[in-house]
Amino acid sequence: MEILDGKKISEQIKEEIAQEVSAMKERGEKVPHLAAVLVGNDGASLTYVGSKVRSCEKIGFESTLVSLPDTTTEEELLVKIKELNEDASIDGFIVQLPLPKHIDEQKVLMAIDPDKDVDGFHPTNFGKMALELETFIPATPFGILELLKRYNVETSGKNTVVIGRSHIVGRPMSILMSRKGFPGDSTVTLTHSRTKDLKAFTKDADIVITALGSPDFLKADMVKDGVVIIDVGITRVPDETKPKGYRITGDVDFEEVAPKASYITPVPGGVGPMTIAMLLKNTLLARERHNAK
Ligand code: NAD
Questions:
Q1: What residue ranges carry the coiled-coil annotation (predicted)?
Q2: pTM greater than the 0.90 cutoff
Q3: Mutate to test the pocket of ligand 1, among 212, 214, 219, 235 (most ligand atoms within 8 A of CB)
Q4: Are the beta carbons of 169 and 211 closer than 8 angstroms?
């Protein structure tokens, strides 16, 4: 069994990006600039946005945090997005989800200029992804592809089962794994909460990608020997023995499943750190594409 070490690989990727940024500076070019829009003060969102901004600073990007109160109207947010679309100094930006209930998330994501949509959530970019055209691949799926690539995990002709059909992880992952090339060329089954007899699918899978948000959901009796496990789940489980009063748990019962797996991502330290690294990668790509225009 080999651990797919997202922490280590994400550090490597960030180091590679930092070197590229230094080279850009030496050539007298503008460095990539990422903006993050945060509406309200949801604890988890604050943590995520904070670490995205800090990562930018560490690798030499410019970053801007646009922090808006939770009373912000949809109209006000759309005005802010228009400003960011038109601001030539900003290469890419993200709107941290979830948004407060009174704001239509889809409408907001649709308002982002696809050329600056480094989260890859705009329908134009999602469509391009499905058509195997140059685009921004959503950061979490992009991170999974990169992990598979750097560990040279065979995906061609394999049976891949994705659990969860969210627009940000499960659905794009199912598309990406079926695309031509490496990593891809898999035969993909996308499963979800209405799937009957999930175990019948996972038992037969060479690769299982879990993105449902249900702690320790995938058990050893649900997979075959030699399976590749990608655990996207992040759930805070109350734990009084931890300083924060909780621990982070994935969708996979790691203790049980790891001995049967050929490769497995741990939680934490697997897919999570890759997500930020690939957001930075997308921002670098945005900068390079703007330069090339
Ligand atoms: P979501 O919460 O939007 O949707 C969950 C999906 O799981 C749904 O499609 C649902 O049909 C499916 N599902 C629920 N119960 C099921 C069951 N019993 N059997 C089969 N399918 C079932 O999903 P999301 O936003 O993709 O998040 C999933 C998990 O991944 C969460 O824990 C989230 O925190 C985590 N996440 C992690 C990262 C990261 O960077 N590592 C990024 C995004 C999400």
A1: none
A2: yes
A3: 212
A4: yes
